[in-house]
Design a protein that fits this description.
By secondary structure, this protein is of the alpha/beta class. It is 39% helix and 15% strand.
């Protein structure tokens, strides 16, 4: 029997390295995008209270009203934009927010531009919807990653319906300035495109003097065509809780809520209540976490810059470094060798699109000793791999 086209989507290269690491006990796991510290106690206590209060029944498709109000209030505070409850849809993970946004806006016969290197699930979601994902790489120079409008214009097709990107980006740490967003919004206006903006890392930014990254929703022209995908996973150390949300134009948000009914119905009520408390009471925690990530970023950048053949763009946000390795085209064999021979796991850059080839992604949201040990192992593994003339 023939399977549907969605079944032909390539499996995750990140998960493949994780599966290999499972075969080699003691491997340092720097391939996943999560902190090694647990969810904070104040969030776990909120979940316990929610269980005691029997928040275990079906919830409304768009989420509990109290959480949606809390999200709207936070976005108003952070981005100085009035958000109504009806624009907020709570989702069973940030990935579900992306899926719903894609399903509502593109379909068979359409295409979507995807600014890469980028978390591969964006491309996957577009392909699952039956549309074509067209990768548009960021440019890279000595100053880091940059938006390239000419590449976007060249990639556009008559059937293009959406532009998708993340800021701060995973894996690059590239962070759009408000001027970048103005350029992107004008591009979407000219070509009548939806804008899908992943803001999952917006509370993890460095050196900007702000506790939050700029958002396209700050621009009035963006609001009728922009869907924001968000998650509690990264900022609040809630990766396994699977709780996220979307912010969409008022006429689009109900569609996202209805579509969720045919996927998972709604997010888990206990996780919703934990997320409400995290967002309401989490500012002091976020400030401490951001300071810790800033220290780890500097440690990782400084250490990697001591390694021969490694170029390190300095990330402006998120919690990854994405070094480029001289002479390397495909980093998958290197990543496999690092696990087998040196017990350290990093993600191959090719997992994040064409623009990621020759790079690896290293997560620095781990404890400091694991990070430094992992970088030592990475250096030994990279130099051995390079010096033995392994194929690129």
């Amino acid at each position: 029997m023939r399977l549907a086209p969605a079944a032909s989507i390539a499996p995750s290269k990140i998960r493949a390295i994780a599966a290999l690491a499972d075969e080699f006990p003691g491997t340092l796991r720097l391939f996943y995008g999560e902190d090694t510290l647990p969810t904070p106690d104040f969030i776990k206590q909120a979940a316990h209270a929610a269980i005691d209060a029997d928040r275990t029944y079906y919830t409304p498709n768009p989420g509990y009203p109290e959480l949606r109000d809390t999200i709207a209030h936070q976005y108003h505070q952070l981005h100085r934009v009035p958000i109504e409850r009806d624009q907020v849809v709570v989702t069973a993970s940030g990935m579900m927010a992306i899926h719903l946004a894609v399903e509502a806006t593109v379909g068979p016969g359409d295409s979507a531009l995807v600014v890469t290197p980028l978390w591969p699930n964006f491309v996957g979601a577009i392909q699952v919807a039956g549309a074509e994902a067209i990768e548009v790489p960021l440019s890279l120079n000595v100053d880091g990653f940059h938006l390239d409008l000419d590449r976007l214009e060249s990639a556009l097709r008559p059937n293009t319906r959406m532009l998708a990107l993340a800021s701060p980006g995973n894996p690059t740490g590239w962070t759009a300035s408000l001027d970048d967003w103005r350029t992107l919004v004008a591009f979407c206006e000219r070509h009548d495109l939806w804008l899908l903006a992943d803001g999952v890392y917006e509370r993890i930014v460095f050196g900007s003097g702000s506790s939050v990254a700029p958002s396209p929703i700050e621009l009035e022209a963006a609001r009728p065509r922009t869907i924001i995908a968000q998650s509690c996973s990264k900022a609040y150390r809630m990766t396994g809780w699977r709780i996220g949300y979307a912010i969409a134009p008022p006429e689009v948000a109900p569609t996202l809520a209805f579509l969720q009914e045919y996927a998972v119905s709604h997010a888990f009520g206990v996780a919703q209540e934990a997320a409400r408390v995290a967002i309401r009471d989490g500012d002091a925690f976020l400030a401490d976490a951001q300071a810790r990530y800033a220290r780890h970023r500097d440690l990782a950048v400084d250490r990697l810059r001591q390694i021969d053949g490694v170029q390190v763009p300095v990330p402006e946000g998120a919690f990854y470094v994405f070094p480029k390795l001289d002479g390397l085209r495909d980093s998958v064999p290197l990543c496999e060798s690092l696990v087998r021979d040196h017990r350290v796991g990093v993600a191959p850059g090719s997992a994040f699109g064409e623009g990621g080839k020759g790079h690896v992604r290293i997560c620095f949201a781990v404890d400091e000793s694991t990070l430094l040990d992992g970088l030592d192992r990475f250096e030994a593994g990279w130099l051995t791999f390079r010096d033995r003339g392994s194929p690129s």
